[in-house]
Amino acid sequence: MGSLRLTERPHVRKARLWVKLSDGKEGWVRCDLCQRRCVIAPGKYGACGVRKNIGGELYTLVYGLLSASNIDPIEKKPLLHFYPGSTVLSISTVGCNFFCQFCQNFEISQSRLEKGLYGVYRTPEEVVRLALVYGADGITYTYNEPTIFFETVYDVAKEAKKHGLFNTMVTNGYMTPEAVDELGSLIDAATVDFKGGGDPEFYRKIMFVPDPEPIYEAILAMKDKGWWIEITNLVVPILGDKPEYVRRMARWIVENLGPEVPFHLLRFHPDYKLRHIPHTPVKTLEKLARIAMEEGLKHVYIGNVWGHPLEDTYCPKCGYKVVDREGFAIVEWRLTSDFRCPRCGYKLNFRGEYTPRNINYPMPVM
């Protein structure tokens, strides 16, 4: 297909956040969406595989082209302190700006253009209508990296706000401050997913990411915009489970975001190109959780280990279990309506309101 016909397709739209280069590279552009800031020649693609330079202008090739659409519990994101018990419509496209060798969604995240784009085209209005029909409280941009389908996120989030829905992202955090600024108040919450404790060597060798430091810059930009933030860290045995990096990360969170920001240590399971690496030992997760607590974090969770005591929320003051969870389900809710401990009156760090839910597991809607 020629480029002209490509641009006529509904899922191909002019991209946001890019500039034309004027330093002797006729027709070249620079994408300013993620921290890779790809310099792209005419006819070529960015690292994400879904943004193309067509005739000296940058286009997204996945606008509204959904690879998945499900109703999820918000705890699956995981967002445990933001509108607990609510449900969200989760959407994704294909492509990613990372190359994680362990990705559990590699079928969509690592789909580059040579393998072909795929998905079901939906307009922002259709996406929001789906959310409303299924009774969702908000929309989450997830499964693959939402930064690379930025235009879809922007337009759907804007439409969602008109109907009283909140918007959240599950992101690797490698977006530019300009991208965070552009989204502004359209996004209400973000789960920022670190891997391997933010170890630079792990990012370079296992994820092919030059440097994780820009993620911290993006998080501070999110904070400035008033986004609710929860931090996760995937603990990969042997390759990415060094205690010193978890300690460094926990200390940074306490100093820059506050001690009551939820911090999730996630258990790794073998997938994609790291099937030879074992599941994370629970004892390793518990050791790292103690380190995070030593650094002052008040809400440290262990994820992907159903039934573990650190799935639950405890009052930072008196230690009383105020939220009892099992997996994505809230088994018992003991906080008051304004998120206070019923025993000592301590006000916990939550946003939104608690909504009892009947749906505890993902439900496809496409």
What does this structure look like?
The protein contains nine helices and 20 strands. It is an alpha/beta fold. It folds into two domains: 55 residues, no CATH class; 246 residues, Aldolase class I (TIM Barrel), CATH 3.20.20.70. β15, α9 and β16 form a beta-alpha-beta unit. It starts with a helix and ends with a strand.
Short description:
The chain has 366 residues and is of the alpha/beta class. It has helices at residues 3-7, 106-109, 124-133, 150-162, 177-183, 200-207, 213-224, 243-256, 282-294, and strands spanning 13-14, 18-20, 29-31, 39-40, 51-54, 57-60, 65-66, 68-73, 87-92, 120-121, 138-141, 166-171, 189-195, 228-235, 263-267, 300-303, 313-314, 321-326, 329-333, 363-364. The protein folds into 2 domains: 6-60, no CATH class; 65-310, Aldolase class I (TIM Barrel).
What is this structure's SSE topology?
Elements (H helix, E strand, L loop, with lengths): L2 H5 L5 E2 L3 E3 L8 E3 L7 E2 L10 E4 L2 E4 L4 E2 L1 E6 L13 E6 L13 H4 L10 E2 L2 H10 L4 E4 L8 H13 L3 E6 L5 H7 L5 E7 L4 H8 L5 H12 L3 E8 L7 H14 L6 E5 L14 H13 L5 E4 L9 E2 L6 E6 L2 E5 L29 E2 L2
Parallel strand pairs: 9-11, 11-12, 12-13, 13-14, 14-15, 15-16
Antiparallel strand pairs: 1-6, 2-3, 3-4, 5-6, 7-10, 8-9, 8-20, 17-18, 18-19
GO molecular function: 4 iron, 4 sulfur cluster binding; catalytic activity; metal ion binding
Organism: Aeropyrum pernix
Keywords: 4Fe-4S, Iron, Iron-sulfur, Metal-binding, S-adenosyl-L-methionine
